[in-house]
Amino acid sequence: MPALDHVTDSVSPALATTGAVTEIPASASCFEIEGLSLAYGDTPALSNLTLRIPRQRVTAFIGPSGCGKTTLLRALNRLHDLNEEVRRGGHIHLEGQEIHAPEVEVAELRRRVGMVFQTPNPFPMSIYENVAFGLRLQMSLKKRQRDEVIEWALRSAALWDEVKDRLHDSAWSLSGGQQQRLVIARTLAVQPEVLLLDEPASALDPISTLKIEELIRSLKSRLTLILVTHNMQQAARVSDYTAFLNGGELVEYAATDALFTNPRLAQTENYITGRMG
Amino acid sequence: MDITSETHSQHISKQFNHELEELKTHLMAMGGLVERQIQEAVSALLDGDSRLAEHVRDNDKAVNDLQIKIDDECTRVLARRQPAASDLRLVLAVIRATSDLERIGDEASKIARNALALTEGGNGSKGFVEVRHISEHVRKMLRDALTAFARFDIDLALAVVHEDDAVDSEYTSAMRSLMTFMMEDPRSITSVLSVMWILRALERIGDHANNLAEYVIYLVKGLDIRHIDPDELDEDALKR
């Protein structure tokens, strides 16, 4: 559906996919994170992170449990806002704008920065209504237009062929992998610029996992994807850049090719090769 | 980051440690075998020992079998462990090294076959001094390359890389003097040609030892120096 495909217009300048990530210029970045610190009450979760997330690329956050990768991901669309315990310092810029600025509306931010969670969470309604849900909230469209967007979103999520004859069946009738792609379609329907994926395949079987990974690759031509995963092979397979976090700090951030063949730091080497006790 | 020979035995999975350790052990065994093949092939020539030459020729199968066995082990590790970083580099370096060691084995049996021809022909010993000299030189290169592999020793690997030039010039000058000899005494052509083939085989062994040393640098540093002139290597950067 080309008319709605506005994000494809902003093509990133060519980025090297080898070598250190300090080379990502501001002009090619989607997110610029500066000195970000975050604590849950007195427990620090992130300390002084500075990194740029390149536009229209897949960036993976890896690290042991509790390293802060999910906290960082959730910070990118202000999912911590409702948690009164959370204290934050530093800045997050999305396309040059501070996301915590008073004029930024959280609902609009979350439209631009969609999120997909570990467990598929379709709403208890039909497949069609699931995808239409966000659309209805965000914009009023004629039924025909809405149908087009829904088909486009389901096609983009590589689900259309499997559900086109049963759009009004309950979303719960889908398999886990299909539900996850439905959730991605629901997020895509409102045309986000960024898709945050928190362990999107960890509850899925290997074939469904490969479909999600294939989907991630196909989506990067039009949006920026950020993936949190425990599965290092998955990060190696799908991402262009990988950030290794440990203890709330950014240890090493590099092109995925470089990080998985010749990491610069011993800590990274130990983690990705299974030497961390 | 720099890795050491201990790096591969620190995984959470002890089985994985064991598998990588086995790869190294088997590679060293294969290296020891081909080194002996060279030594025996050259002795067979110098001592006119045709039984030893036949033994070397027949033993080449053992070298080939080891290559297949080690490559199989590497394939298994790749398929089951999906190694990354230095583990991945170790497996790749071992696969490449077995291929060079197998080629060295072929060169050793080539030497043995030519030694047999020379022994049976009963001709003079023109060029034997050069064979002895160059064979000692390349055997030392091979030994050092294997030691560098076992110890992850960058300095020793670099020394081997530099040694290859010396072997090449010794080879060139030996060939030149044998060429002159053939022109002066055409009856010697058949036997001198055999010696030349042997020298050629030894020179190739030097090249393979050089390759092994380059794999050590890849393994330890993650740098591929295969097509860089040794004189243009930034050694300070490598040793950092």
UniProtKB/TrEMBL annotation, chain A:
Keywords: ATP-binding, Cell inner membrane, Cell membrane, Membrane, Nucleotide-binding, Phosphate transport, Translocase, Transport. GO terms for biological process: phosphate ion transmembrane transport. InterPro entries: AAA+_ATPase (IPR003593), ABC_transporter-like_ATP-bd (IPR003439), ABC_transporter-like_CS (IPR017871), P-loop_NTPase (IPR027417), PstB-like (IPR005670). SMART domains: AAA (SM00382). It comes from Litchfieldella anticariensis (strain DSM 16096 / CECT 5854 / CIP 108499 / LMG 22089 / FP35). This is Phosphate ABC transporter ATP-binding protein. Residues 31-272 form the ABC transporter domain. Signal peptide: none annotated. One of its GO terms (molecular function) is ATP binding. GO terms for cellular component: membrane. The keyword Coiled coil does not apply.
Automatic annotation (TrEMBL), chain B:
Residues 28-114, 131-216 form the PhoU domain. Plays a role in the regulation of phosphate uptake. GO terms for biological process: intracellular phosphate ion homeostasis; negative regulation of phosphate metabolic process; phosphate ion transport. It is found in: Cytoplasm. Its main location: cytoplasm. Belongs to the PhoU family. This is Phosphate-specific transport system accessory protein PhoU. Homodimer. Keywords: Cytoplasm, Phosphate transport, Transport. GO terms for cellular component: cytoplasm.
